[in-house]
Amino acid sequence: MKRASKPAKPAKPAKPASRPRTKAKDESATVLYDVPGPRARRRNLLWTLLFLAALAAVVWWVIAGLDAKNQLEAEKWEPFFTDGRVWETYLLPALKNTVIAAALAMVLALPLGAFLGIARLSDHRAVRGVAGTVVEFFRAIPVLILMLFANAAYAEFTDISPETRPLYAVVTGLVLYNASVLAEVVRAGILALPAGQTDAAKAIGMRKGQTMAYVLLPQSVTAMLPALVSQLVVIVKDTALGGAMLGFAELLASVRPLSANYGANTIACFTVVAVLFVLLNVALTTFASWLERRLRRGKRTTGAVVTAEAVEDLATPGEPTGPKP
Fold first, then answer.
1. Cys-Cys with 250: which of 84, 98, 133, 268 at CB 3.0–4.6 Å?
2. pLDDT tens string 228-249
3. Which of 265, 268, 273 is nearest to 244 (CA)?
4. What's this model's pTM, rounded to 2 decimal places?
């Protein structure tokens, strides 16, 4: 008697044929250039060594020249480390004035620049024309002339004391010039967004002001941030113009009395002031970089959720917004 045959096992589904491997991924990292070979690597190493040697020669030439003029003597640099009056009387008050002028100019120039930039995108031709004229006019005038003109205007038409007038003039010049530049930054950042953002906002009933405030501006801030930070750094550095021409007691203006009272150590004074400017701008750039990373992280981890109540607020008058029967 024959045994019953075992039921046949179901056939396994055939594996999909693997796609032929391409070199696209391997070449993606070098799509803009060829991978250097042994000869090219040796040539690059040679040019690097030559550049470092030339840089070392220039540094040595500068140090030797300073040493020949007795600018590296310890007595010229010692007051910055041993005499507290250098900082209490000259550098710290000057640094405070620089920070005050730059901060006031930033606080006033940012909203004014945003307003002018948005006005240049208005649907009304008159608004666009006025905003464009203001922006082009103040952007074409050197910031130093704006400071001098503001100083003369304050002296002629106001009762501001001569002691505080340079601060007002410096802030006014910085605000007028940098607001016009920031207006172009804001306008370019908004225009860089895809047109679909505006179309989607119109599709749910948003007005032009709501679209600008809730859709376009929040998305363009991250893209505009590097240009905004660069302009804020310019504001910090341009405060030195007020010290050179208006007698504003900022960092650069502290070099002359400091050098006169401590043995004509001009190079040392300029070096210390330059380091303070660098530290101030590095702190501003670091804060802006941290803020940019935070904004980008927030966009990746959170999403906008439009609730039914929010849609009801955007509905046209007289149109039912509740659930359809």
1. 98
2. 888 889 999 999 998 888 888 8
3. 273
4. 0.73
